[in-house]
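Researcher: Please predict.
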Amino acid sequence: MNLNKINLTEKLSLINEHWRPKVVGELNGQEVKLVKFKGEFVWHHHEKEDELFLCINGSMTVEFREQKVILHPGEFVIVPHGVEHRTLAEEEAHVLIFEPAATKNTGNVDDALFTAPNNVKI
């Protein structure tokens, strides 16, 4: 058995683009992803997948149609499946996402600017 620790700072240094999550771990059909946010993402929802957003560096917002949740380092929010939302960050934010494997980052929306390939590992 080969057990390895993951250094989030090291992995984040390998990410050079915004809104393109990279897989850094897998467990029980779930993926742990790292992503850098800057600007506004597209409004979307996920039919079957819940998502967890954990802010690591900077600050970010998860907007819902009737409220918004602002996250600072060390804070997270879980977005239930079916709930329309978008993420945004005025300045670059580093975020850990935990969600079922192969979850499309734009959910029910096809948007060439934001759709990231699934399962890209670093």
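Model: The mean pLDDT is 94.
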